[in-house]
TrEMBL record:
Keyword terms, alphabetized: ATP-binding, Kinase, Membrane, Nucleotide-binding, Serine/threonine-protein kinase, Transferase, Transmembrane, Transmembrane helix
CDD domains reported for this sequence: STKc_PknB_like
UniProt source species: Streptomyces lomondensis
Keyword Nucleotide-binding: yes
The protein's name: non-specific serine/threonine protein kinase
Top-tier EC class: transferase
SUPFAM superfamilies: Protein kinase-like (PK-like) (SSF56112)
Length: 392
């Protein structure tokens, strides 16, 4: 397990692991020193599962390495920087920049909800990060307050933990018949396995903005079945604190992904709010993104459901006029089918843990960069998310 130097492991002959920063379903995060360059880094050590066969362990390792290498190609000021991917004793390690500061979840737990202007600032940063990732064929799939870091001293917003990301052309960490993610922040089309795409990450952002403004996701419930119902068919009730940003929140929490507010429009509306104090009902001209991204590459078919299931072809993108339709309308046929599926599974006694935890514990693992341990949340943990200390 590496060489010892002053009672500290050194992996790959270069990275000295010094202090454990966090632990979760997807691995352990260490504060470390790159001895070659003399700088601090964060190192994510992926767990060893002795219950896996050698072939399964090798497949999981290969998938993780492919995804980490793909994410390492992303370059955006609000996306964590991956420096290196190494293997030591047949175990992969991901080396990233070290962000001195806690997560958005830490901030909410310690200081309470943020105001509308701060939520808009965070939203703008994350929209830029998501647009850059999507343009490179990467879906994050686990956007939540735990995976958003706020750098101390600069308040830089950093999207981290691509541990369950879907990368175009590469198998994902999802195993046959399982689901990975955080249900309170998961889009209904992904929850039902019908489809996944950039729009699913934007739904997660809508839920995250509500959490930032009120302290919790609008889909938080006391039971897993309650979360499923709230996400798939329940009335969507944005918190009162979301009032100043309500047009954006409503647009992002549109159940039909073809009608959902896209990243460019959402950013323009948030920028208008920060400039004028009012959020327009439709995106104004003249609020172009500050960082232009590469042309979008088409993403591969959804892989959230069991392997071998035929993919659902994407539908045409709607025109801008469709954004003005009522928000809380009747669910589409696709969502109704999803609701029946959820009800059938509940009636059959399907294990909620097996459905929603999957290989990733439903958690997505620890954020691989925060230097401060996570602060316990002030509300009970979601029944869909196992307790992990910490999960930045």
């Amino acid at each position: 397990m590496g060489t010892e130097g002053h009672n500290r492991r050194v992996i790959a002959g270069r990275y000295r692991l010094e202090e454990r920063l966090g632990r979760g379903g997807m691995g352990v995060v260490w504060r470390a020193t790159d001895q070659l360059l003399g700088r601090g880094v964060a190192v994510k050590e992926l767990p060893y599962d002795e219950t896996l066969s050698a072939a399964d362990a090798r497949r999981r390792r290969d998938r993780t390495l492919r995804e980490a290498r793909a994410v390492a190609q992303l370059s955006h000021p609000h996306i964590i920087v991956v420096h290196d991917v190494v293997e030591h004793d047949e175990r992969p390690y991901i080396v990233m920049e070290l962000i001195e500061g806690g997560s958005l979840a830490d901030r909410l737990a310690g200081q309470g909800p943020v105001d509308a202007d701060e939520a808009a600032r965070i939203g703008i940063a994350l929209l830029g990060a998501l647009r850059a990732a999507h343009a490179s064929g990467v879906l994050h799939r686990d956007l939540k307050p735990d995976n958003v870091l706020l750098e101390a001293g600069t308040d830089r917003v950093v999207l981290t933990d691509f541990g369950i990301a879907q990368v175009q052309g590469a198998p994902t960490l999802t195993e046959s018949g399982s689901f990975v993610g955080s249900p309170e922040y998961t889009a209904p089309e992904r929850m039902s396995g019908v489809r996944t795409g950039p729009e699913s990450d934007l739904w997660s952002l809508g839920a995250l903005l509500c959490a930032a403004l009120s302290g919790e996701s609008p889909f938080h419930r006391d039971s897993l079945g309650g979360i499923l119902h709230a996400v798939v068919v329940g009335d969507i009730q944005p918190p009162a604190q979301a009032g100043p940003l309500l047009p954006v929140v409503r647009g992002l929490l549109e159940r039909d992904p073809d009608r959902r507010l896209d990243a460019d429009r959402a950013e323009r509306m948030l920028r208008a709010f920060r400039d004028t104090g009012r959020t327009p009902q439709s995106p104004p001209p003249g609020y172009a993104p500050t960082v232009r991204d590469a042309p979008r590459r088409p993403l591969g078919p959804p892989q959230d459901m069991a392997e071998g299931q035929p993919p659902v072809p994407p539908e045409d993108t709607p025109g801008p006029d469709r954004q003005e339709e009522p928000f809380l309308r009747q669910p589409t046929r696709r969502v109704l089918v999803a609701a029946l599926l959820v009800a059938a599974m509940a009636g059959a006694g399907v294990s909620a843990a097996a459905l929603l935890m999957g290989e990733g514990d439903g958690d997505g693992g620890p954020a691989p960069t925060s230097s401060a341990p996570g602060t316990p949340t002030t509300r009970p943990a979601s029944p869909s998310t196992p307790v992990a200390t910490p999960t930045p």
